[in-house]
């Protein structure tokens, strides 16, 4: 799962690779680019790790001990929980036929060793954008809530959310500063504008509307009320 810290998404990548030197190099570079990295050195371990950590993307070596990358990919696609998990096959083979075989068992993309880090990152980012794990440009994302600034649209878990203009600005501001508590006065200044005379209780009214709009029946309340302090966008409601 993507972890949002101060509004920055850090997608979790599972690296399935048995060459220790390559693992070290990839981990170093991916972490530098803001990814979180977990490892598995063979196919069986890969399946166990996937069930355990729910990665956002799997970088899957073709030639693996115990169970081949092809078989791992097949199993990922067979299980309902991982059917849509983005998979990039990493292969040392260049034969066209093998590539086709990789895509046939359900890999989303493939890259041939040796590859440049830039090429790999471009493919990873494209896939993660498609799966919604990282936001496209002009979008804010907090857990399952996406706010599209250009199109002025909001969605939660893929479901469109209809917000009034004030609720939209309120959510936009909170999404720009997730996990931070703002007082009613601070929210008035930021959302309504400084010097605008509005009752602090007006904030409560709009927070209530925002909650009604973004929280579906079985969804977690993402707006946290902090007694005597104000509100924050958070996943740990008290
Ligand atoms: Ca290998």
Structure description:
The chain is α/β, with parallel strands linked by helices and 238 residues long. The protein contains 8 helices and 13 strands. It has 2 domains: 12-131, Response regulator (Rossmann fold); 139-233, Arc Repressor Mutant, subunit A (Orthogonal Bundle), CATH 1.10.10. Helices cover 39% and strands 22% of the residues. The strands form 4 sheets. The protein has a 5-stranded parallel beta sheet with strand order 4-3-5-6-7, sandwiched between helices. A 4-stranded antiparallel beta sheet has the order 8-9-10-11, covered by helices on one side. It has a two-stranded antiparallel ribbon with strand order 1-2. Helix 2 (43-53) runs parallel beside helix 3 (69-78) and helix 6 (165-176) packs across helix 8 (201-214). The relative contact order is 0.10. The structure holds calcium ion. Residues 18-19, 61, 63-64 line the site of calcium ion.
